[in-house]
Amino acid sequence: SFATVEGESYSVGFKLSQNPGTVTSTTRVTAGDSSQDFTFDQDTTTSNMKWEQNVLSFTATSSNTVLSFEGLTSNPSGGAALDQVVVVPNQTINAFKTGLGGDVVNLQSLLASLGAPQSNVSFDDGYLRFQSSGDNTLVQIDANGGGDEYVTTITLVGVALTPSDIDNYILGPG
């Protein structure tokens, strides 16, 4: 279980595969009152697990949320395999002002929780990106720094934020 804020939305990001020799495996992911079944049906080997990124979004119903992964498939080969589980809050920010003297989003503790560099290297190493989505900017993280499986943590509504807007975000101390 982990601390949450009642009424706030969160995303659980995780990689799903299955142990070699398993035909198909289904895993039920539950966070608070939200639950979803995820099925994996690819052949895997010990050298190629064919990991798939998955996300479950939920709204916290209390100050403490229980997260569980339940294998629903009985298999002598072992069934599902999980990796890189991360829980992040989803925030939507309206009226964010860019430029010198504007608003600032502090990403320091988020990057620290991933073990990511707390500097602009986070962009280059694939831990962090600012993704344009229509008129909005999605602040996204990749838990392993691979730059290929991002989860949105913040949506800045009606704002175009880029890594060059250094007055409007904090990545680390100083």
List keywords for this structure.
globular; 3-stranded antiparallel β-sheet; 174 residues; mainly beta; 6-stranded mixed β-sheet; 6% helix; single chain; 13 strands
Question: Could you describe the 3D structure shown?
Answer:
The protein has 2 helices and 13 strands. It has 174 residues and is mainly β. A hairpin with a 2-residue loop joins strand 10 and strand 11 (136-141). The longest helix has 7 residues, at 108-114.
Average pLDDT reading: 91
| Rg measurement, Å | 18 Å
- Estimate what percentage of residues fall within beta strands: 35-45%
Across the major sheet, the strand order is 5-2-8-12-11-10
Summarize the amount of helix as a percent range.
Answer: under 10%
Largest sheet properties = 6 strands, mixed
Unreliable spans: none
Name the structural class: mainly beta
Determine the number of helices (DSSP H or I, runs of at least 4 residues): 2
How many β-strands, per DSSP? 13
Distance between the terminal alpha carbons, to the nearest Å? 33 Å
Sequence of secondary-structure elements: EEEEEEEEEHHEEEE
- The coarse overall form would be globular
